[in-house]
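stuck on this one:
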Amino acid sequence: MKHKKLMIIAGEASGDLHAAHLVKSIKQVNPHIEIFGVGGKNMKEQGVDIVYDIVELAVVGFVEVLKHIRTFKKLMDRLVSLLDTRKPDAVILVDYPGFNLRLAKRVKEKNIPVIYYISPQIWAWGKERIEEIKKCVDKMIVIFGFEEDLYKKAGVKTSFVGHPFLDIVKSHWKKEEIIKNLHLKHNSKKIALLPGSREKEVQRHLPAMLKACEKIKVKIPNAEFILLRRRELDKSIYNNIISKSKIKPHSIENKPYEVMEISDLVIVSSGSATLETAIMERPMVIIYKTSTITWFLAKNLIKIPDIGLVNVVAGERIVPELIQFEVNPVNIASEALAILNSREKQKTIKSSLRKVREKLGSCGAADRAAHLIDRLLH
């Protein structure tokens, strides 16, 4: 019997992580399967033949994408060519809709089944995209329960498997170890800073975060600040910003759950990190700032009142969001202090976060998705 072949495409760090867990589960179901595609170090560690590394794709926003249009076109042509030479039995697309939905059309033209894992955020950008998806996606595997209802109503074959973060999000160090390793004080108020996973996000968010920390420190003298750095980003990006600040945060690389574990509050860039913070049940302030042009274009397209994923899943604003022009030190400090100075507020937020966690389903998302994919291949 011919060994099955899969092409898998993840265009950014979070997709690489989820795709790697999915690949691991697929290989447990079918050890002889051959998998190649676009991804990063996590997928590579799971034995995926990486034909293009995602480091060069880490851009966000309309303007930034336009600047890299030639890169995307060359990648598209290369992948379409690989469909002919390597002949995969199916293509799995992981999130990254701007590129992946265009690729889906090209794959469909060649009558190769298209499986989408982690849906484009149609609920944020408007439901017109569903018709486009219906034409070129054979199976949608979603990680939010409310997405299943949306797709099924539109006639798209869909399965809800739960959120993969439920298997991933946990600290591997004890609290004592984290405090000791980061040279923190036991009795301090600890505030985590998660400025984002992309260079532009760090440059836009971290200066305002640090200035807000100065204001927090005046009101809470025993406050300590922990910066989560991303290994993929050059240390100089962080150091240049910190060198201009009075606040010198403790910093750690790629240990988000350990940082959250000891934090009283997390100031976090909007994105999947807000859900990770929710699963760790930590009160947070969400911030997000992009280029002005991108913001004005996005503002007209976004169809929902809140953009923080944790608020979207909750169906209401349970943690504060500061977006674009609201992102300034005064606002960040004000929202942070309102939470840090109120036990009642902390209790209410934690209770709401527990409900969000329950809405994410149960552990084993990647395993359930792998079994669905295996059935589709036979």
Q: What stands out?
A: Residues 199-219 form the longest helix (21 residues). The chain has a mean pLDDT of 92. The domain at 5-162+361-377 is CATH 3.40.50.2000 (Rossmann fold). The two ends are 12 Å apart (CA to CA).
